[in-house]
Amino acid sequence: MAYTRITAAEAAALIKNDDNIGMSGFTPAGTAKAVTRELAKKAEAEHTAGRPFQVGIFTGASTGQSTDGVMSIAQAIKYRAPYTTNGDFRKSVNAGEIAYNDLHLSHMAQELRYGFYGDIDWAIIEVCDIEEVGDKIRCYLTAAGGISPTVVRLAKKGVILELNSFHNPNAKFIHDVYEPLDPPYRKPIPIENVGDRIGTPYIEFDASRLTGVVECNLPDEARAFKDSDPITDQIGNNVAEFLIADMNRGIIPPTFLPLQSGVGSTANAILGALAQNKQVPDFNVYTEVIQDSVVDMLLTGRVKDASACSLTVSNECLMQIYDNMDYCRKHLTLRQSEISNSPEVIRRLGVIAINTAIEVDLYGNANSTHISGTKMMNGIGGSGDFERNAFLSIFTCPSTAKNGMISSIVPFCSHLDHTEHDVNIIATEQGVADLRGKSPYERAQAIIENCAHPDYKQLLWDYLKIAKMGQTRHNLPAAFAMHDTLARKGDMHLTDYAEYVK
Amino acid sequence: MAYTRITAAEAAALIKNDDNIGMSGFTPAGTAKAVTRELAKKAEAEHTAGRPFQVGIFTGASTGQSTDGVMSIAQAIKYRAPYTTNGDFRKSVNAGEIAYNDLHLSHMAQELRYGFYGDIDWAIIEVCDIEEVGDKIRCYLTAAGGISPTVVRLAKKGVILELNSFHNPNAKFIHDVYEPLDPPYRKPIPIENVGDRIGTPYIEFDASRLTGVVECNLPDEARAFKDSDPITDQIGNNVAEFLIADMNRGIIPPTFLPLQSGVGSTANAILGALAQNKQVPDFNVYTEVIQDSVVDMLLTGRVKDASACSLTVSNECLMQIYDNMDYCRKHLTLRQSEISNSPEVIRRLGVIAINTAIEVDLYGNANSTHISGTKMMNGIGGSGDFERNAFLSIFTCPSTAKNGMISSIVPFCSHLDHTEHDVNIIATEQGVADLRGKSPYERAQAIIENCAHPDYKQLLWDYLKIAKMGQTRHNLPAAFAMHDTLARKGDMHLTDYAEYVK
After folding, report:
1. Which of B342, B476, B499 best probes binding to A when mutated, by most A CB atoms within 10 angstroms?
2. Which value does ipTM take for this structure?
3. With a threshold of 0.95, does the pTM exceed it?
């Protein structure tokens, strides 16, 4: 190959203070890792020398420790969008040190193209293979679709490729690279089935724009998820039973519908419970993140076709995919985040969306992002893309947190990411509240009865007693009494509304 | 014509307590009016006789006095979705007397088909013409697309047509009737341009399902909108200038993009200001409700093509359309609400969405529905469908209400319909806050500086001073201090956070 090889440090040396960087990846999967570690070192050196050095970072979703982690520690991030899950980043952002813009993931690529964030200076893309075709480079993505074609096209100063030999070049066979045109020229996204492919396996760009290739061998940094526990298992069973009942009464078609399930142990528990039930036919998955459990089901045929933006799986699982590529290339497709999370496609396919909430309120609003209204946990991710457009919109959470000191059902969410208009079903380990067709007061009754922990039911009924009549019943000065009591006394059980009511 | 004529009273006599009725119309435009008046009378008679009589009503959006009005007064409505604007209905719903489910308008038809609301017993459809073709009836809608084809197809007990001779049969030429298939069979909605037609001009159904035709001559009940005033004019100018600046710096394409603008005097002021500016090329409108001002611009060619769900216009304006049908049929299209408000189409076309909010908060969340968190005003309508999927998402409101006693900019919205993830721009008569790319704290600064009334700026800055650090800064017990002070003292100016902070 005739391309220019450079080291990660040489690549980092090219990047200037205040530059905006667009990166491959979606979750730690497929994210650039080599240059970012050198960028963190550069930032530390620059800061030691008394010079400013911070950059803006745009990716498909979160990244791993080699990006958001080391760069947060090095205070190298000025601006970040659209999502992160990193603990070091979280500390910085909640201390007000990073400007973080928490976006619907389907919005990121198009808003970059629309020019809402200024110029993208650099694209840093992890690839598993590179070809030169005339004066073009064709590069092949690894474990995620992300926003890569967009940032490659937009990067004004150049494209840096991390050719990571940890990934098998066969990874190319699961990618369907597609970037829509922008208005007024956009066309329908022609996906009608979960497995439809509409693009190319590669990203192509002018070879003159390639700054250099950084060769590396770095494992993916996918997170380990907690094993399921009795609570998440019970939530999984509750959701599975509910969906089966809805299928049996003819709401969900007998062929079932594609599933989207968030990340983590609850998601695994739900999928596991569905897969184990013989009434549920083999099903499809149209989601943003595929975890190990879906890969297992895909390889056994229980999941027929799976489409996602990333393989957020253990490295063992990733190797299993690469080793079974003849099968996987027919049944597994990775897409760009604006396609995996496209409202158009999600609504057309009739996806059943299941995501976890931090808290939900009596009227069916959900908080996906903030602890007690102020501290960012991760971000909204794709939950809004999926839930708003789903055939069935489901949120799950354990009914309590912190050994019962926190009720996840509250009078008023301390931060709202999903409104009452967007939530059909709430499930906890206690049971399921079906909010479809219900007025706000009927929803409150269903949520307290079916989802709240017994310890908190009376406190929630008491709130309704002091609430003013209206379409939505509230007592505003007492709306956050449970949150404030937690902050002051460490336990929501101790809430006394009388302290708040004026 | 061989169809059965019945009177409105005869039709009403067929409808039983607890029946669910699906109706034509979207806003008062095109809504059934004759049978509903008789239903109200029947309810009163039944109630006088000590018998229960209440029905569920499903329409495209709001209706007029002859439906929500008289039926609310008669306590004839048990359940209502997805939207209303009627004052009598509002009183009932805020007194807890009607179960009202406030939905995204794009969700109504598909959720009826999915079976979320049980059976639809009757369809009552206002039509301008009827044809019999073999054993089929073809009926032609009047001033709105609504959910009519869906409720005609679903109605288990029968279809009642109100053949309203107030409407010119030529109204048929502006309709494009299209009902998508449901998952897993749904296909792309093939609209690529505002004026594209993809369906038929009529709704067709088996003649055996026609219960009868009620002949009537009743004017449409479109609301009169307040004339613009200096405040709405200034908001209009601010938005127009902002959009022109965004076009001049290359964000909005030079061809401009289709506009969606809510209902009312601010919407008219914005469209007027844009139309008067010579830098803005002739533009398209892709919206849910067309008002008189758009029709004026359409007839002069300033608006090239307009697509909507309803003609919510004065009756004079409606007659002007009917009188200019040769021109209007080429440039004006009425669609079903799930198409006019389709996330798929709105995102594809790159619609610029402009809607009014009741209040917005420091972080860019918007309340479209509730006064002080409890009293329903109208409903979310299509604002969520458009704003979430818009190329540019704009909310407008006067900076104050009630002679300045209320600030429309508050620390925390008392009800949230649109989250921080869905709002790009906030405009008041004071100015415009561009929230794109901004972190929550940067948004708060921009909103206070640019949008808040000078009387309230200090109060809002003071809130940030007492707010806890985090991604989103709040002091939860004081978050609704302004609202509670208004409730207790009649004036948000008198807010003293010290009364609330624990």
Report:
1. B476
2. 0.97
3. yes
